[in-house]
Known about the structure:
With 352 residues, this protein is α+β, with helices and mostly antiparallel strands. The protein is built from 11 helices and 13 strands. Helix 6 crosses helix 9. Keywords: Transferase.
Amino acid sequence: MIEIITDRDEWNSFMKLIGHFDFYFTYYYHLLSKKEGERPMLIAYREIDTLIALPLLIRDIEGTSYKDATSVYGYAGPLCKTEDKDPSVFDNSRFKAELQRFLIDNKVVSLFTRLHPYVDYQANLLKNIGCISSPGCVVNIDLTLPLDLQRQQYNSRLKTYINKARRVYDIVEGKKEAQIEEFIEMYYENMRRVDADPYYFFEKRYFYQLMISSNFKVKLLLCSRKDTGELIGGAMFIKTGNIVQYHLSGCKEEYLPLNPIKLLIDEMRVIATAKNFTYFNLGGGLGVREDSLFQFKASFSKDLKPAGFWKYIVNKEVYDDLVAQSKNGEEHEEQGETDFFPAYRHKLKTEA
């Protein structure tokens, strides 16, 4: 049986029944992350001794009576709790039928979700429901290893960088408003420098609301120069259950040659190990590609986890019609046309 949950308390109660979840699955984070026109919704499925939670953001498709669904910024997908069975061998046939019926009845045309690389049974829950692609990996630091063995996985250049950085930088925890403001500006500076999509320019409220959350713990580490006290970089880490997520960071451009973010990641690794966390997820490259961002993160660890994208076309006839209408006689730019999902939301880029 499928139940739709949009109430905060009911959402939180169902997630407690599931028992294991990252902050990306919380109602609070969905409410904070949603963009204009998006509505948080939790699909709560019950089958005898099994519970499945699938958090989504529902969007209207402009000019139609249809909708589609996507996931929050980060990692989501379905979570499962079973009494006697391993979720990785769960028979999803009834779940598949009920989910498809619900989506069709509610005029949901397509669904896209970034899967959680540390929940290894998700592929089984979604077996034969759309398709899952794995375009790349995320980087994990195994916090169950002794600190010296963790550090052995660093490349030699990274070790040199961190040793030098510890001699010239101090680390402080950001708690004051002025510190948070400065971190936000450094983050924005980073986004402008890499010509990031407007999606990544989160409102200031987003940062402050993360900091005060009672649903998960956020640690903002800042780096300053020992000689002047100037703040030069910062990183935001989010802790839930047994996992630490490297969420956002920013650095002043003139300090990139001796990047303080490397030192902050190393410091968080030490703190999280002492607190008995299991995973320290650094994430991957943009779109989980093996780009320069991925190489930066991979310099810390050789422990790579496949990252999955779940794409599900629920109503192919309507989907194809929407794609045709979106083109409107024009050809989409060649790059990315086959990868962008849903294709009818692909926007043409015009030359400046």
